[in-house]
Write a structure and sequence with these properties.
36% of the residues lie in helices and 24% in strands. It is an alpha/beta fold. It folds into 2 domains: 2-138 and 262-293, Rossmann fold; 141-261 and 295-322, Rossmann fold (3-Layer(aba) Sandwich). The longest helix is centred in the last third of the chain and has 16 residues, at 263-278. The protein starts with a strand and ends with a strand.
Length: 323
């Protein structure tokens, strides 16, 4: 049976298997996701394939309630509505979704993906998270920010002024700015923070970056940035500002480069967490995982369009080069 409900900030798709009279209802997975039902997502596809391989076929053994958001401020409403549906487990894609889910329930298990430091959200330790929250992080923020800025400096040796595009509606990872500032001081980079409150602000922030002589833009990932990655990439080309991000999605849309964990792999691993919880394991007994592999992705087509010569030594180290 397929039912759809539209409400502020997202969409819902709920698939449940036809049940015989007196049969127990299938367990339900609620998913808090970035984007929309029509947005292509290799990560979500990898997650569902892995769930299927573990024996959880949507519409047969498992009901799935999907809710999408293109802005962090909408996630609280989506999480609360998902909790009212009494799911067995919640998958929260991103730290903002994890925070919203955590505020909506203290009892339903939550599997988070791509949190920077879950201890900010009350996880006791990586080995013994306690509570109802577990899952996967993207690694220590100081490591990601320092390495990302180092790679940016290597790609663009003459850069001294970096605009940091930050979504002010985010609250889950405010400490991220500290490690970035520390890394910038070591590399003698001056950071210029650009606040975004809505999709209408992207054009103005890029214009401001140009006016204040920024030489490139670093994107702090957020639901709004991911949902509008094509627009961001277009603005980067329009204003001739190279864009650096944590995840490859913006690079695939036309940004210059990214450094961070493989999101597809994180989603695939998250399916293992969901499987274990559906089989009775408590989230408190599932250690929080940190990624073991980080990938460097470079869009050589964008580099050429901006008149940039990426050093061959950097290209040789890239995990993926888009031409």
């Amino acid at each position: 049976m397929i039912s759809r409900r539209a409400f502020v900030g997202g969409s819902v798709t709920l698939l449940a298997a036809p049940l015989a009279a007196g049969a127990q209802p299938a367990p339900k997975l609620a998913m808090l996701l970035t984007g929309s039902p029509t947005t292509p997502s290799p990560e979500r596809e990898a997650f569902m394939r892995q769930l299927g391989a573990l024996g959880w076929v949507e519409g047969e053994q498992l009901a799935v309630d999907r809710r999408w958001s293109d802005a962090p401020e909408k996630l609280g409403r989506l999480a609360a509505d998902a909790v009212r549906g009494n799911p067995t487990v919640i998958l929260a894609a991103g730290p903002d979704a994890a925070r919203a889910a955590q505020q909506a329930t203290s009892t339903i298990p939550i599997v988070m993906i791509a949190a920077t430091d879950p201890r900010i959200m009350g996880v006791a330790s990586f080995a013994h998270p306690r509570g109802n929250l577990t899952g996967l992080t993207i690694g220590p923020p100081e490591v990601i920010n320092e390495k990302g800025l180092q790679l940016l400096k290597e790609a663009l040796p003459g850069v001294t002024r970096v605009a940091v595009l930050w979504d002010v509606a985010r609250s889950a990872e405010a400490p991220t700015t500290g490690p970035m500032a520390a890394a910038a001081r070591v590399l003698r980079l001056r950071l210029q923070h650009l606040d975004v409150k809505s999709v209408r602000d992207f054009e103005a922030t890029f214009a401001q970056a140009t006016k204040e002589n920024a030489e490139c833009v670093v994107i702090v990932e957020s639901p709004r940035a991911v949902a509008n990655r094509t627009l961001i990439a277009e603005l980067g080309l329009k204003h001739r500002l190279p864009i650096m991000s944590q995840f490859s999605r913006i690079v695939e849309a036309g940004g210059l480069m990214s450094y961070g964990p493989d999101l597809t792999d994180l989603f695939r691993r998250a399916a293992v967490y969901v499987d274990k919880i559906l089989k009775g394991t408590k989230p408190a007994d599932l250690p929080v995982e940190q990624p073991t592999k980080f990938e460097l992705v470079i869009n050589l087509k964008t580099a050429k369009a901006l008149g940039l010569a990426i050093p061959p030594s950097l290209l040789a180290r890239a995990d993926q080069v888009i031409e």
